[in-house]
Design brief:
heterodimer; A: 9-stranded mixed beta sheet; 48% helix; elongated; disordered N terminus; B: alpha+beta; 4-stranded antiparallel beta sheet; 10 helices; 31% helix; extended
């Protein structure tokens, strides 16, 4: 039924034939957004899709109409062009870097076979139909149909973690039609592949292939995704493989699924956008009011003022002129430079992270890196951390610790290394057959697909059993002075469904055929032969996982020659089947893996990373909820959770397990957990535990109530999670309005990292995929505390100041203009001249505010000592509508002070336009130097230089401008600087403007201090403790103040759910 | 294995990616962190008080010592009921005599200002209606951009100086006599030197000025270059506020107390149609400029408030002492006292 839909949309690929090579695109990969030619128009288009830029563009265009422009159009065009150039250069630089990395990929050398000869060409020169020859560990350059491998069974292994995030290797099969071709024949093969047009589905490839003569079998052979090698995967454990290129360049499955990463908007940015909209609305209201009254003034007063020569009948648009003038006058209310200023500041935050010496990991030689420079503030507002376990909390360095062989527990002492256990050594030296087999089993099945196996082999070699040779078909083992050879007959692959793997081997000496199996306890133990007591092993597994160790069960069985032969046939059939191959293989394997003789259990430790428990404790104290999402089993996860302070043991905390056999059970246990959580979360540290199956059912049936539970829960341990489920959990928390941080190290965390508001990758042992996909990459989990508490917090504080100050200074000058409108007949005259207005935005006010990027309210040590202070920034205490109103209020007050002092001091014969405007402007500059000073917490020399240097620069610039005769302000500054009354006026402005601010600050800091104030005071007094009585009432409010912060936001989001809870 | 490992290590240390240490990159620049402690705040307010009150008193006394006589004449100088009709009639004699008695001795030079109220020199239509190039350069006589609606005469010839400002120039004149004896008014150097030298050309002469049907204000002497038309230059320094004074001239002689100054005013300028007022101001000057009590009063008031605040803070500090920096005040330390700090 589906056939009809795709047969019409397909391509024919002629193998080894030039006829079709140019009908499809080449293999040049291009991730760049622009080309040299379309950069300017495309970038302009992109930039002016932003509302703010459109707005400023309209304003700039209106400015060109001199009839309404209050000042020269340059005041808007200048900054607009500067801003455009800055953003465009940033885009161009990023795109250039993308171009360079593409170029590197495109010019990589690959081998192709052309009519039997091997040639090396650049990857970008591959065309559809070429035969590409790959060697072990090569990255696959384009989508290929596999036609041959070095493996006689026609299989090869690929690592697809770049595509699907799963780190285990995938097996790919040569299609039957080309299975028996020799390497020579492969080079000359001709044929046609009929395949659908390119799509992004990496699980589906419905095609068929026909080979031409001289190959006899001329029938179409169906192909599936299992016959393909996809671009950006790696060939592993296979000497060589070759395939026909079917999709190339950007048309490959990976190229088609490569979406442009969504740009992340920080919570602070979202807040700034909201505030901008509020200011915009305010501006429109002001403009309409002023415009309305301006028109009334004109009609009642203006017509009488004969010297204005108002025409009795104006043009039809006359009523619009005054409102539009006010619109232009008030357009400075929204600071045009805010985005550039913030981008610049964010760039500096990111650099500080890159530069941070204390986040440099000696062991792996990796510095911290922020790939995304735009979201540092979010780090300071994180509410949930969702962490991977293996490799993130732990080192992902497996060490063989203990084992249990035939009812004997080895390594039970509290030693570091299970291998030093005397009993085990004795058992080995005395050739205890079970022990030997045990070691054999672990050793032979070694293929290093996972680190657990590597640990086993290392352990065995320490016990004198060395794996000396291993290839595809045999393994040699050196033990106690003699060699043993085993012939590897079949490998029953590991899959995450079966949770076990087996090998069939033939003992080189005795010719006996053995089945050796290993896998998870629940996959091996039920398959034990009927007679064997497995109780002991169950206990061992239980005990080991209680200790936080990873367990693996081993078993074996003798195979009769006949049984093996019969099975082998079935296995081969299943391996070649075209439909449901995987399940068929699983079924066949299943039939062999029975009646196992259980050998024992191994326990491997994955040690916690250095500093993890302290970091988690610190982060939890900082009010961040930490969840652990792992693919590991429940017991191990809980143990690790205990070890790393994620959960504490019974009396102070309680672990709520959400499990059940049936759907109803699970849902009921979810409800129960929720009720307990709701009633006791204030008094006890509660955590819930659930596994992947339960989560799947819950998400299907009861997502709502799970969301409610998630919001209450400070801690959770989720085990047996698939990469997708990890991402789903992030999405649930995000949808509940929380700021999430995902941290992980492996390919299976990539989805979670990309989904979370902030993705942090640990550049760990599982490769760099996570680090590459992440916004930040660090070497160790413990650096997270510096990243969040130091960099995140400072960034948030600084952005809060910069953004609000930008509005403050713009509003300040705008309010003065509005006040002046009332004294100029509501006609829309600008008090300030064009030069001053432009310089005000570009120079006078933008430089001092940048000093705040060096500011630290409290020292790093204090923050780490009192992590609770993070709750301040977490709850958005420094940037919210209330603080913003404070800034607006201050701006209005300062505008009133500056304006009225100016017009009173410069009244009568002094009220000359240019002088008065310069006095008002100087007043703004003076006040703002003091505002920045007042809001700076720590002064370093760049700050002092910038703040007061800017102040001096203001006078220098204006003295220079006053020397240019063609300017309106010619000689003005000379006049003013010579007048004592000018300086007296300035001092008065500053004192009236700043005095109340200082008095208010003082009273607040002294008598209603915020936690930050208190910490500052502690720092200053060096922590000397002296208790005073009689302050309790004042303190009471402070006490509740902070603790409410987080619960507040919780309560707010809870309120949506209240009605649901009542029933 | 081990050898390659150590080799790798040494390689790593040689090629370490460790960020370079500097106080700047580690954000460890030495910083000073002033806090608003009682000492600093009380000290600052006291200091402001102590500095401000004397300055305020000095300014106040300087301002009080200035003798300023204001005589509003717009209403008295028009006897007719139809004031607008009177002022617009070119034929009537508009001379008007005012007598001002000087209460205190005035030391020369005495500045003569005219003061207009409710006159919007800062109006958007008005303030832009001029062309600076035209005023400055001889060759730019035809530059009349921005000058609408007073750009060209009726026959289309460009007006120099063009624009509403020049057109509406103030044209009342004053002649003074002290105790019946005529006093000369010095009208030289009433404009800024910079304006005379660079803003108004010495080779630019008025052309087509006030030749239209509607006469705005004063006419200019076409023989004199603009740079010498000081009344025009003064007028064209537009005022920022609707009430303003402009310098008319100076009387260089001293005036004794109880002397009578007689002023003969040619009351030509029309402020009647828009309800504006006109006044004549005679004033001495001092270092602070003209008479303006605002700064002095504000300084004294602010200084006083600051002293008062400083005292208030002292009292508050004594009544409600508070240790700064007691960690036990921190909310989380109060919540869980067992938690190590």
């Amino acid at each position: 039924m589906e056939v009809t839909s795709w047969t019409t949309m397909k391509r024919f690929v002629y193998i080894n034939d030039d006829s079709c090579r140019y009908s499809y695109c080449g293999n040049r990969i291009s991730n760049t957004k622009y080309t040299f030619w379309n950069f300017l128009p495309k970038n302009l288009w992109e930039q002016f899709r932003r509302f703010m830029n459109q707005y400023f563009l309209i304003i700039a265009c209106l400015q060109l109409w001199s009839h309404i422009a209050p000042v020269s159009p340059a005041t808007t065009w200048g900054p607009l062009i500067i801003i455009f150039i800055v953003s465009a250069s940033k885009e161009a630089w990023d795109d250039y870097n993308r171009y360079l990395s593409d170029k590197k990929a495109n010019e990589r050398k690959v081998w192709v076979v052309k009519d039997g000869t091997h040639r090396q060409i650049k990857a970008q020169e591959i065309h559809v139909g070429d035969i590409v020859w790959l060697h072990e560990n090569d990255e696959i350059p384009c989508d290929l149909v596999l036609i041959g491998t070095s493996d006689p069974q026609g299989i090869c292994y690929v690592e697809m973690s770049n595509l699907d995030g799963e780190t285990d290797l995938k097996t790919r099969f040569v299609p039957s039609i080309s299975a028996n071709l020799s390497a020579d024949q492969l080079g000359k093969v001709k044929g046609v592949v009929e395949c659908p047009n390119p799509d992004n589905d990496i699980r589906r490839f419905d095609a068929n292939m026909r080979l031409f003569l001289p190959i006899i079998d001329n029938e179409a052979c169906p192909l599936t995704i299992n016959n393909t090698l996809l671009q950006s995967c790696y060939l592993r454990h296979t000497e060589w493989a070759c395939g026909v290129a079917v999709y190339t360049g950007n048309e490959t499955k990976s190229g088609m699924s490569r979406g442009t990463a969504e740009t992340k908007l920080t919570a602070a940015d979202a807040m700034i956008d909201k505030l901008t909209i509020a200011i915009f609305t305010f501006q429109i209201i002001v403009v309409l009011l002023l415009g309305y009254f301006g028109n009334i003034w004109k009609d009642t007063q203006g017509l009488k003022q004969w010297y204005l020569m108002y025409p009795m009948e104006g043009p039809w648009y006359d009523f619009l002129v005054i409102p539009l003038r006010f619109e232009l006058l008030c357009s400075i209310m929204i600071p045009i430079s805010i985005k550039v200023t913030l981008d610049l500041a964010k760039g500096v935050y990111a650099k500080f992270i890159d530069w941070d010496e204390q986040m440099f990991d000696w062991e792996t030689n990796t510095p911290a890196h922020s790939a995304n420079t735009a979201i540092s503030e979010d780090l300071g507002q994180v509410q949930y951390i969702l962490s991977d376990k293996t490799g993130t909390l732990t080192e992902n360095r497996m060490i063989f610790k203990r084992c249990c062989i035939s009812d004997t527990m080895y390594g039970n002492n509290n030693e570091d290394d299970g291998l030093k256990d005397a009993k085990l050594l004795h058992a080995v030296s005395s050739n205890d057959p079970d022990v030997i087999k045990f070691l054999n089993d672990g050793t032979v099945s070694y293929k290093a697909q996972s680190q657990d196996e590597e640990a086993l082999v290392n352990a065995a070699s320490n016990l004198n059993m060395m794996l000396i040779s291993k290839d595809n078909s045999s393994a040699g083992i050196y033990f106690n002075g003699s060699d043993f050879h085993y012939e590897l007959l079949d490998i029953l692959e590991f899959t995450s469904d079966r949770k076990r793997m087996s090998v069939v081997i033939k003992d080189g000496q005795t010719g006996k055929i053995l089945l050796l199996s290993k896998g998870a306890d629940e996959a091996i133990l039920p398959r034990a032969s009927a007679g064997q007591q497995i109780q002991r092993y169950l206990e061992a597994v239980e005990m080991y996982s209680q200790l936080g160790l990873r367990t693996l069960c081993l078993g074996w069985r003798d195979l009769e020659e006949d049984e093996y032969k019969e099975w082998s046939k079935k296995f081969r059939e299943a391996s070649c089947s075209l439909h449901n191959r995987e399940s068929k293989i699983a079924e066949v394997c299943h039939s062999l893996e029975r009646d196992l003789h259980i050998l024992g259990v191994t326990a491997i430790e994955d040690r916690l990373q250095d500093g993890v428990p302290e970091t988690i404790k610190l982060l939890r104290n900082a009010g961040i909820n930490v969840w652990m999402l792992t693919g590991d089993k429940q017991n191990t996860a809980i143990q690790i959770g205990l070890l790393c302070n994620l959960i504490t043991s019974e009396p102070s905390s309680q672990l709520l397990s959400i499990t059940g056999k049936t759907e109803e059970d699970i849902l009921r246990s979810l409800e129960r957990a929720f009720i307990i959580m709701k009633n006791t979360c204030e008094t006890k540290d509660l955590a819930f535990v659930l596994d992947g199956c339960a989560l799947e059912i819950i998400l299907k049936h009861s997502k709502e109530s799970f969301t409610r539970l998630a919001m209450l829960s400070r801690t959770a341990i989720c085990c047996r999670m698939t990469p997708l489920q990890k991402a789903q959990l992030v999405a649930i928390l995000k949808s509940a309005g929380y700021l999430t941080l995902g941290i992980g190290d492996g390919g299976n965390d990539v989805r979670m990292i990309q989904e979370a508001n902030i993705g942090v990758g640990i550049s760990g042992r599982e490769g760099l995929q996570a680090a590459r996909a992440a916004d930040y990459s660090i070497g160790k989990f413990k650096f997270l505390r510096r990243l969040i508490l130091i960099h995140g917090r400072y960034s948030y504080n600084r952005t809060a100041f910069i953004s609000q100050y930008s509005f403050y200074k713009s509003l300040n000058i705008c309010f003065i203009q509005i006040l002046f409108a009332f004294l100029s007949g509501l006609s829309g005259t600008s008090l300030f001249n064009s030069t001053s207005l432009m310089a005000y935005n570009v120079f006078y006010t933008s430089l001092p505010v940048m000093t705040i990027i060096f500011d630290k309210d409290i020292s790093e040590t204090t923050v780490l000592q009192h992590p609770q202070i993070l709750q301040h920034s977490q709850a958005g205490r420094l940037l919210n509508p209330i603080t913003f109103c404070g800034w607006i209020g201050r701006s209005l007050y300062h505008a009133l002070v500056i304006f009225f002092i100016t017009i009173c001091a410069y009244a009568d014969e002094k009220s000359e336009m240019q002088e008065l405007s310069m006095v008002a402007l100087s007043g703004c500059i003076w006040i703002q130097a003091f505002v920045v000073t007042m809001d700076t917490n720590s002064f370093t020399y760049p700050q002092i230089i910038l703040i007061w240097g800017n102040f001096v620069a203001f006078y220098m610039i204006n003295l220079i401008l006053s020397a240019i005769p063609s300017l309106q302000m010619y000689t003005i500054m000379f006049h003013l600087c010579g007048q004592p009354s000018y300086w007296i006026t300035m001092a008065l402005t500053v004192v009236v403007g700043m005095g109340p601010v200082m008095a208010f600050r003082y009273l607040r800091d002294m008598y209603r201090p915020s936690a930050i104030n208190m910490l500052q005071q502690i720092e200053q007094s060096n922590g000397s403790i002296q208790a005073f009585g009689g302050m309790d009432s004042a303190l009471e409010s402070v006490r509740t103040n902070l603790t409410d912060l987080v619960t507040d936001s919780r309560r707010n989001s809870d309120s949506n759910y209240q009605p649901l809870l009542s029933d | 294995m081990s050898s390659s490992g150590s080799e790798g290590d040494s390689l790593a240390s040689r090629r370490s990616k460790k960020p370079k240490y500097s106080k700047f990159t580690q954000q460890e620049l030495p910083a000073c962190k002033p806090l608003l402690t009682p000492g600093i705040v009380i000290g600052a307010f006291s200091l402001i008080g102590v500095v401000f009150v004397p300055i305020g008193l000095a300014s106040l006394s300087a301002s009080q010592n200035i003798v300023e006589l204001i005589d509003r004449y717009d209403a008295e100088c028009v006897s007719a009921n139809d004031k607008v009709g009177f002022i617009q009639d070119t034929k009537t004699d508009k001379a008007c005599t005012r007598k001002i008695t000087v209460p205190k001795p005035m030391k020369g030079p005495i500045h003569i200002y005219y003061q207009l109220e409710n006159f919007y020199q800062n109006h958007r239509r008005y303030v832009k209606s001029r062309n600076d190039k035209q005023l400055r350069y001889k060759d730019s006589g035809a530059m009349i951009t921005n000058c609408e609606p007073e750009a060209t005469s009726e026959d289309g010839a460009p007006i120099v100086p063009c624009g509403l400002i020049a057109w509406s120039m103030f044209n009342d004149t004053f002649s003074f006599s002290l105790n019946k004896k005529a006093v000369e008014v010095n009208k030289k150097n009433i404009a800024w030197d910079s304006d005379k030298q660079t803003k108004f050309g010495s080779d630019v002469y008025p052309k087509n000025f006030q030749k239209g049907g509607l006469i705005g204000g004063a006419k200019l002497d076409e023989k004199l270059p603009l740079s010498e038309q000081e009344d025009l230059i003064v007028w064209m320094r537009t005022a920022a506020l609707p009430t303003f004074r402009k310098l008319y001239g100076r009387i260089e002689t001293d005036i004794m107390a109880s002397d009578e100054v007689t002023v003969v005013i040619q009351n030509n300028y029309n402020t009647y149609s828009f309800g504006g007022t006109k006044a004549l101001v005679l004033s001495t000057t001092s270092w602070i400029g003209g008479r303006n009590n605002f700064i002095g009063a504000a300084y004294v008031a602010i200084g006083g408030i600051c002293l008062f605040l400083a005292m208030g803070f002292v009292v508050l500090y004594v009544l409600k002492p508070r240790t700064l920096g007691d960690p036990s005040y921190l909310s989380w330390n109060k919540e869980s006292p067992d938690q190590p700090n």
